[in-house]
Structure formats: C-alpha cells, structure tokens
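#struct-help
A.M.: can someone run this one for me? Single chain, 261 residues.
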Amino acid sequence: MESFPEERKRYIIDRLKYTQKITVSEVSEQFNVSMETVRRDLDVLEAEGLVKRVYGGAVSGTYHHGEPPLLKRKKIMEDQKKRIGEKAATLIQDGSTIVIDVGTTVLGLAKEIKYKKDITIFTNSLPVADLLLTSMDQGYFSGDVILLGGQLNPKQHSISGKLSEMVLEQFNIDQAFISVGGISLQNGLSDYDFNESMISKKMISVSKEIIVLADSSKLGVDAFCKFGSLEDMNAIVCDSPQPDSWQGNHLVKNIDWILAE
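D.P.: on it. Structure tokens below:
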C-alpha cells in the first residue's frame, strides 16, 4: 500500500518520543519505500527543527540548542552505552593513571571498571565518582579516585572551571576517556556545554592516549562547542562500525576503531 510523506513523518516523530533514535532502514521496511525516500523525509523534518539527522537515521530535535539534563539522558541508547563501557574498561591496565570526563556514555565505563589493581582515576563527574566509590567499597578494584574541584553544574552533575584545569596540569595521565556530544570529519570532537568542553580539552592535552566513547547517534553530529580534532584521538569505542564515508579519510586513518558488539 502506498504511503504518504505526512504519514511517514508522523510515524518518525511518534517513534522518537519513545526510542530517542530511529534508523532509515526501520522506516524503509515499515512503509516499503526506498531509503532515499526516508532520507528526504528526515531532511524535511530536520529543516522544520523536529529531528536531528545523525549517521544512519535521526534523533529527537528537541534539544538542538543543548542537551537534556543528565538524568533524562541516562535511558537514551542505554544498551549501546553499556556495551561501549564494557569494551572501554578492557583497555585499562593495572597501575595506570586515567581520567574520565562527564556524560552518560562514560557512566557505562565507570560501572565496568573491575579487577584492576593500583589505578588512579581523575574525574569531574559526580555520578562517575559515586559509582567508583561503590566499586571500591565492594573491592572491585584498588587504587585512588580523585574528584576534580571547581564550579558545580547541578543540571549535568559535573564540575568545571579554572581550578579543575589547574589540578589536571599537575599530572601526567596515561589514558583519557572522553565522551562527546558529536563527532564529525568536518569539526572533530564537540559538546554542548562550554565549560565541560574546556575540561575535556585540558584532559586531552595532559594525556598520552585519547580514547573517545561515542554511540552511533553521535557520528556525523556537530554540537555547540569544538574541543578536539580527530588527529587528537588514538581510539574510538563505538557500537557501530566506522561509517563508509569515513573510511580512507586521512583524518581517521590512524584511529583504532573499536567495535563494542
């Protein structure tokens, strides 16, 4: 049966209220139309400010000018973030010093840090620090957790500011685990909060290895504030393979793309 553009667009908007992301292939199969037709529908919806186009589909456009509070984001792509966290945790070595920034993707990492010895973890995320404290109490890993001081952001449960940057400058960090609001070939790493972005930028500058944690909805997305280039990255842990359009590009040729299956 032939479908009409308005019918497909209503379906997309309704699905995004519950799933937070929709894929081109899902809509194509649902209405038996070509993927190019669905892409045109999504382009129209993005122009109307109702969705945000991302690699392979779209996400809700409600927060085009920023992110929802952290507590509201925790359920978005929860399974994918869990897999990313599990895979990222395997990269941590005993005796290393690491830094973890803010966001819901790195919460998955904090939950999975287990069976590590004598590690030192810096973070500016209150939820990450709380999860690590619980894990230490339960004997999952040994070492130290250092919560960076600075200005509190109640909405995102984070800490930032010059004091945080000054503390980071005093240490040599082995690995930085960085969450992003978006990552693209054109603009590199970006996020929605300026102050948090400046802390992530500082973490990158003091760390020997940069590992970006990003679910597939962040690919091809440009958030408000640029804080790092693709050349800064050593690895990206993602729930989907590298986009075909990225393969062979000189900006990503030295990045280890780690698939969290």
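A.M.: thanks! The longest strand covers residues 116-123.
D.P.: also worth noting: The chain has a mean pLDDT of 89.
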